[in-house]
Automatic annotation (TrEMBL):
Annotated EC: 3.5.4.3
Cofactor: Zn(2+)
Molecular-function GO terms, alphabetical: guanine deaminase activity; zinc ion binding
Pfam family, one: Amidohydro_1
Superkingdom of this protein's organism: Bacteria
Keyword Hydrolase: yes
Class of this enzyme: hydrolase
Cofactor remark: Binds 1 zinc ion per subunit.
Source organism (scientific name): Massilia eurypsychrophila
Residue ranges annotated for the Amidohydrolase-related domain, each copy included: 72-433
Alphabetized CDD domains for the sequence: GDEase
Pathway terms, separated by semicolons: Purine metabolism; guanine degradation; xanthine from guanine: step 1/1
A biological process from GO: guanine catabolic process
Name this polypeptide is given: Guanine deaminase
Length: 440
């Protein structure tokens, strides 16, 4: 790759970390440059390496933005989040199903209004960027105007976003129901309008098996087959009451996953949220089909849904990623999400190193979405989405990270103690899209 003309080239000096493989399964899974230089050519990564090696070759006139003392990683990727639930985050309920009835459905009904949808989308995207998240897989509502509002807002910021209209034709309030036919028609129209336009990508989004008829699931599977580059997103085996309900609604299915499988909803770029009550066969089938799991620890703890079994999933080799699942999730930030994921793993008797959690929130997610090469790493030519982390963002972080002896310890402290205050800056396609105001 030739070096760009200086006016398109930007250089960032900081510690750099990015991944090539899952550190749980590979040696040499990451690159670490303690005194590093990230070269960005317009919207894309040009190179990432040691400052001492890259700086002498910089063309004259290129400014070096000095982030020494900070750590730059690829922008975080949140593989499961509901933008319309922003305003109902932290709404308590005794479990998933009453939470949906009491808070979610009334909140989502307001998204028939495109002005409201746009206002919430703008606030939501601001929160993501404050949290260092540059790509998300986003559920909109059943209203197609909620998808237009979301993509218009993300396009205005130039963000790489995946989103889709919720499909829901039964077991929900009438004011939120579509039909198998109208849901497909609207989804097809939205795919035509948004999938691949700028950085927008479309996700076919049946909410979960209980709110879709067999006819709707079938049409969703057919739509997914007709548009293989689109994503599929839904919920799977989150809560025991939900699992029992699915069993009664689909008595012929071997498992909850099998309901989706029978309707052609397992394939690469299908991402299933939660997967707490999946068995070994389910995980093996997901791995075989190329589907992936979005692990949602803050949500699962908040609703009391259960503890994800990392060991069982890893034994099957299914692709994993981390997700906020806001509004059941309680934290937009992937650092806080890692904090809870770590504790969930401990409760199940397993262990998630910080290096792996950073992998899952970056390259692991990109791989789950089949977007590696485009996002999630500093490979040359990748989109220049990155986040500048400040290990001294708070007095406690400064004190703790000042005493760290290894990269693992540093990342662990950031994951366990960090929040949006540790996100010094967020860049998307080479543009500064968030900068933390100086502390007052
Ligand atoms: N299952 C079906 N819909 C939802 C939702 O909006 N949030 C969560 N956490 N689970 C769901
Ligand atoms: Zn969800």
């Amino acid at each position: 790759m030739s070096i760009a003309t200086p006016e398109h080239l930007r250089a960032y000096r900081a510690s750099l970390l990015h991944f090539h493989a899952d550190p749980a399964f590979a040696d040499h899974a990451y690159s670490w440059h303690e005194d590093g230089l990230l070269l960005v050519d317009g919207e894309r990564i040009h190179a990432a390496g040691d400052y001492a090696q890259l700086a002498p070759a910089l063309p004259a006139g290129v400014d070096v933005i000095d982030y020494r003392g900070k750590l730059i990683v690829p922008g975080f990727i949140d593989t499961h989040v509901h933008f319309p639930q922003t305003d109902m985050i932290a709404s308590p309920a005794p479990g998933l199903l009453p939470w949906l009835e009491r808070y979610t459905f009334p909140t989502e009904s307001k998204f028939a209004d495109p002005v409201h949808a746009r206002e919430v989308a703008d606030f939501f995207l601001g929160e993501l960027l404050r949290a260092g998240t540059t790509t998300a897989m986003v559920y909109c509502t059943v209203h197609k105007q909620s998808v237009d509002a979301f993509f218009e807002a993300s396009e205005a910021r130039g963000l790489r976003m995946v989103a889709g209209k919720v499909l829901m034709d039964r077991n929900c309030p009438d004011f939120l129901a579509d039909t198998a036919e109208s849901g497909t028609r609207d989804s097809e129209e939205l795919i035509g309008r948004w999938h691949g336009r700028g950085r927008a990508l479309y996700a076919i989004t049946p909410r979960f098996a209980p709110t879709s008829s067999e006819a709707q699931l079938q049409l969703a599977g057919e739509l997914a087959a007709a548009h293989p580059g689109t994503f599929i997103q839904t919920h799977l085996s989150e809560n025991e009451d939900e699992c029992a309900w699915v069993k009664s609604l689909f008595p012929g299915a071997r498992s909850y996953l099998d309901v989706y499988d029978r309707h052609g909803l397992l394939r690469p770029r299908a991402v299933f949220g939660h997967c707490i009550w999946c068995d070994q066969r389910d995980f093996a089938r997901m791995a075989e089909s190329g589907a992936a799991v979005a692990v949602c620890p803050t949500s699962n703890l908040f609703l009391g849904s259960g503890l994800f079994d990392f060991e069982r999933a890893d034994a099957a080799g299914v692709a994993l990623s981390l997700a906020s699942d806001v509004g059941a999730g309680t934290d937009f930030c992937m650092l806080g999400t890692m904090n809870e994921a770590y504790k969930v793993a401990r409760m199940k008797g397993s262990y998630l190193p910080a290096l792996r959690m950073f992998y899952l929130a970056t390259l692991g997610a990109a791989r789950s979405m089949r977007l590696e090469g485009a996002i999630g790493s500093f490979a040359p030519g990748a989109e220049a989405d990155f986040v500048v982390l400040d290990p001294q963002a708070t007095p406690l972080l400064a004190r703790r990270t000042g005493a760290c002896d290894s990269l693992e310890e540093l990342l662990f402290a950031l994951a366990l103690l960090g929040d949006d205050r540790a996100i010094r800056a967020t860049y998307s396609a080479g543009r500064l899209v968030h900068e933390r105001p100086p502390a007052r």
